[in-house]
Specification:
Elements: E1 23-30, E2 36-42
Antiparallel strand pairs: 1-2
C-alpha cells in the first residue's frame, strides 16, 4: 500500500481533475520498521 504525502509550497502537484501526471523516482530509503520513503518529482515532457 502506498500513502502519498505531498509537502512544501508552490504549484499544486496533484489536482482533483483526474488527469494522470507522470512522476519519476528521485530517491528511496527503507526505514528500520520496513517502511519505504520514496521521493518523486514531476517527469519531464
Amino acid at each position: 500500500m502506498i500513502d502519498p504525502l505531498v509537502v512544501g509550497g508552490g504549484k499544486r502537484l496533484l489536482r482533483d481533475d483526474g488527469v494522470v501526471r507522470p512522476l519519476r523516482l528521485i530517491d528511496s530509503q527503507v526505514t528500520t520498521t520496513g517502511a519505504i520513503l520514496a521521493t518523486h518529482a514531476r517527469a519531464e515532457g
